[in-house]
């Protein structure tokens, strides 16, 4: 399998670059320069330098991929060995630094064998070419395109069996008359097939009406994608089966031709029909593509994008992309169209789609059908639309992400159109009329505008707007409140003229301008999250064979993904517990700068760690990290063949030690002795559980208890819980319980363990004692408690 192509990332749902980095496809559709749209390959119109210039323009505003079409008259050229134009197109993309999503057969072939042959020739020509993201077999094939086509065998949709299952409501004469007129069935189709097509089309329209009624009855909370698999769709299953079989015989020869010629190349179809897109036959594709053009209303935007995101449930493990979307500026005012499109990009991102494609780079010159001519990021004369000012900020957020993050809220503006607000750890985007933003940062201007504020590194905020106006930035409301005297405000390398009103910076901005505020935070980091990101056995050996492993931890500011400072110098220690024994420190971390998508952030390595004990199936190792002199919230990594904490025998004390306040220990062992789900429920059923822990003199079997008289030791004993690969949080304070022999236990009652009912979840518990260095055991509660190789989100920030 080639390793130098864009591919599907492990686990599906995402794409990745050849070096394994996450890739969110920021696509711009291109049909040629404005003055030769849909005719760029025609005689006298082909200009590779102009094409490359347009590709560079798309790259400049944030696109990392171009979707374009193999169109007339190329189908007459490359079969004769003339690849001049297509080669130049691919070379232009490579030089411009964009990937190509090539849409094939944009010239109306009537034989599926021809489509497959052409697809195979193109794939063979560009086998292994790194400039190509993938092949899109056809742009928006419709019911008609699938049924009225030459196939080697009879078309399932035109079978007598289908007509028998759904008796026609029209006479054969009426069906034939419709087919030859409104149905536009060509003369090469026999009368019998034309009649069957008319009847199949009548079934199709009735099915669509039923699906629309079903969705409307659910207030658009579900789409036709869900209807197909609902009980109410049962009467339509014979028809859907015939439709699916037709799609399969259409797809199979084309996919086979590409696979044979260019193994590893991604394949998709640019569906605009959600029914066709969600049929099971599409499973042979590498990723799913949908086209949607919603109206300017929050309700309809959410509904249309629900169709695209619904494909994720239909095809788990396959990325889903919205490869065409947009708003016509002949129908929606350009600034409002840009708002709708920004909301669409962000909604798709937050919903977990793997890429989005704007239709298209340029408007077309004035002419018939103004709607189809007004979707450009740039006008026909090359002037930027507001959407072109928005895309650089959007792409900076989208393309550099490993997973959906942030939260978008759609709302209606004063006229009922789309408005939005998006907030993430490193970004605040919003739209508004006359004003946009919040108390931290706000834009004020004329008309509809958007404000984009994004932290591209700790202490570095980048600001963009889509309309001219005044921006107010309140330094006092930034994270790690900066010293108002320690900031710089720069655009294009030059200082930005501004006024300072207390802690507020006030300055003017123009669309297309990027203003950067670099500020110095005051104070020290008070707490960190310390997460083990990888345990890598030497030589990639399995648990049952590995002797040693390397471990890497990420340190971020608490409750965020922001990396600690580049020169963070506190001691970072790896702790290890074996089975039910208390953890102990085993290694100090080595500071290293790691690169993520071109950004450099500090990480800590622990190399050559002995993991040989876990080769025994009955043994498991728990790893966690601590940071000296600062509050630290850590995750737990479990390394073992079976990592569950099975019901152990409680650790037996050999002696007891009553402790007075004056002799409070500085170091203790803490052992969780029992986790008891309420009612004895199984892991898959338990909602709540009680836990109990004992404290011991470190390294001994001497159990600690508060003295019975005088000023006594009254420690705050906490139960900490971490879910999956997340960091721990204190969830309960222990209640002291003593027995007649003065043995002391700390109980934690009614602890929520419901998350572990899901097989994918596991809960890790341990104990912390205030004022004492605590060596605790770890108790893992889950159906499968092993820590599988996660896809950790890299820390934000940049030490470049």
Brief summary of the model shown:
The protein has 800 residues and is of the alpha+beta class. The protein has 13 helices and 42 strands. Helices cover 21% and strands 34% of the residues.
Task: Write up what this structure looks like.
There is one protein chain. This protein has 800 residues and is α+β, with helices and mostly antiparallel strands. It is 21% helix and 34% strand. The strands form eight sheets. Strands 12, 13, 14, 15, 16, 17, 18, 19, 20, 21 and 22 form an eleven-stranded antiparallel sheet that branches. A hairpin with a 5-residue loop joins β36 and β37. α1 (48-60) packs parallel to α2 (84-96), α6 (172-180) crosses α7 (191-217) and α11 packs parallel to α12. The longest helix has 27 residues, at 191-217. The two termini are 34 Å apart.
Give the biggest sheet. Answer: 11 strands, antiparallel
Structural domain tally: 4
Radius of gyration: 31 Å
| CATH architectural arrangement of the largest domain | Alpha-Beta Barrel
Estimate what percentage of residues fall within beta strands: 25-35%
- The CATH topology of the largest domain is given as TIM Barrel
Low-confidence stretches: none
Distance between the termini: 34 Å
Q: In CATH, what is the class of the largest domain?
A: Alpha Beta
